[in-house]
Description:
Pfam families: PseudoU_synth_2, S4. This protein is of the alpha+beta class.
Amino acid sequence: MRIDKFLHQMNIGTRSQITQLIKKGAVTLNARQVVSGKTQLKPGQDLVKLGEREIQYQVHYYYLLNKPLGVISASTDKHQKTVMDLFNKSDYRPDLFPVGRLDKDTEGLLLITNDGDLAHKLLSPAHHIKKTYEATVTGKLDEQVIQKFTDGITLKDGTELYPAKLEILNYNKLENTTRVHVQIQEGKYHQVRRMFGAVGQKVVRLQRIKMGTLAIDVGLLPGNYRELSQKEVDELLELTK
Ligand code: URA
């Protein structure tokens, strides 16, 4: 691979910025100053440095974002703020995208990556990747609703869903709402809201807290993101094998 292409892929700067860096003598390959962007290297084997900084070869990037309310799960949009607008300039790459969608008024865990293969597998219905949501819903839920979720809800349009797990956390008498955890194994449009609609309740707050082996951190505030650890990436790759 050409060194200018390598540096561009590693998000070091625009092509002209990289040309300038090489011209200035800021780039070394195996401790020798690089004089041309055409210089060939073996990514992952050769040692590239920008000044004192070692430039590691990385193909795939994985981030866990705590999606806040009011932004859409898309890569770009002409009118609305997207989850990608929450990224710092230094982390942003045009090939990053959110894996699946959360509604504009849903918060919580969203995986952002440029690994199309993993994304495809996580979203594929064949893999039945489990997603857990914390929801606040109207009314007081009882054992009968838990059983309906266990048996598999039929949505108002006739769609039959796979069994889901419903756990009641607490009932708020003052607001007449119930806080629950729901675990589903599909990802149909507005699925959780429509499941509660099918049992006569309305979701007033919805937050995704888990997807497969990945869980949201308590300390990661809405709008913030962090890179996945190697262990978290390996667990996701193992889950989708
Ligand atoms: N179910 C919903 O209804 N909305 C979401 O954003 C995710 C799951």
